[in-house]
């Protein structure tokens, strides 16, 4: 007499893939860090992994104003740009299931800091790396960044901003030796422990 086994009994069990989700109650993830940190690249990959939307704050500001950031700086100055940035940030923070990449200087404004901290469902991640690493990444990107024309001034700006990034962040990821894909994996692993 031969015995029959149900297909469920003989099926090979494979380990399930890690669940890709944001912590419960989180409606948007905000990425902060200095230029070269990979906020836009990592933000797009993270949004795709979560099935969310991606919003680059600088692009959002340009779409809202119909001007480039360079034009706003040239014709209206940094103070006007910062006011426009705050209104663009307030708008961005109304989006749910969205990964938002901030501009490098966004956290310098107390208004912006408070907007991010006090908007329910917002979780901030600081993408960290030492200044020489960030500077080299920017050079390799071959995009024009006027701030980097004077490396010592850029280093000073980085030193001023880093504590602001740290204070704002609920999670800090050191990206120094990570690819963008590895950063997203590390970030999702850390988030799923929250």
Q: How would you characterize the overall build of this protein?
A:
- This protein is α/β, with parallel strands linked by helices.
- It has a single domain, classed as P-loop containing nucleotide triphosphate hydrolases (Rossmann fold, 3-Layer(aba) Sandwich), CATH 3.40.50.
- The protein is 51% helix and 12% strand.
- A five-stranded parallel beta sheet has the order 2-3-1-4-5, sandwiched between helices.
- Helix 2 (39-50) packs across helix 8 (180-191), helix 3 crosses helix 4 (69-92) and helix 4 (69-92) packs parallel to helix 5.
- The model is unreliable at 1-18 (pLDDT under 50).
Keywords:
disordered N terminus; Rossmann fold; 194 residues; five-stranded parallel beta sheet; 51% helix
What is the overall pLDDT average?
A: 86
What distance lies between the first and last C-alpha atoms, to the nearest angstrom? 55 Å
Largest sheet strand order: 2-3-1-4-5
CATH topology: Rossmann fold
The amount of helix comes to: 40-55%
Order of helices and strands: HEHEHHEHEHHEH
Give me the count of strands: 5
- Overall number of domains: 1
For the record, the CATH class is Alpha Beta
Please tell me how large the radius of gyration is: 20 Å
What's this, in brief?
This protein has helices at 7-10, 39-50, 57-65, 69-92, 110-118, 131-141, 151-168, 180-191; strands at 28-32, 53-56, 98-101, 122-128, 171-174. The chain is an alpha/beta fold. α2 packs across α8 (180-191).
């Amino acid at each position: 007499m031969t015995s029959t086994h149900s297909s469920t009994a003989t099926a090979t069990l494979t380990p399930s893939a890690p669940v890709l989700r944001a912590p419960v109650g989180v409606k948007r993830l905000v990425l902060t860090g200095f230029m070269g940190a990979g906020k836009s690249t990592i933000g797009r990959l993270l949004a795709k992994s979560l099935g969310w939307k991606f919003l680059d704050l600088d692009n959002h500001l340009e779409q809202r104003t119909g001007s480039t950031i360079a034009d706003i700086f040239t014709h209206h100055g940094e103070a006007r740009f910062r006011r426009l940035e705050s209104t663009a940030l307030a708008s961005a923070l109304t989006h749910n299931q969205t990964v938002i990449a901030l501009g490098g200087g966004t956290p310098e404004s107390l208004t912006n800091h408070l907007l991010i901290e006090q908007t329910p469902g917002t979780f901030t991640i600081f993408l960290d790396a030492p200044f020489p690493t960030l500077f080299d990444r920017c050079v390799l990107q071959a995009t024009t960044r006027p701030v980097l024309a004077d490396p010592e001034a850029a280093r000073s700006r980085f030193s001023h901003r880093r504590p602001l990034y740290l204070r704002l962040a609920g999670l800090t990821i050191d990206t120094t030796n990570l690819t963008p894909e590895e950063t997203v994996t590390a970030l999702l692993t850390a988030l799923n422990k929250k």
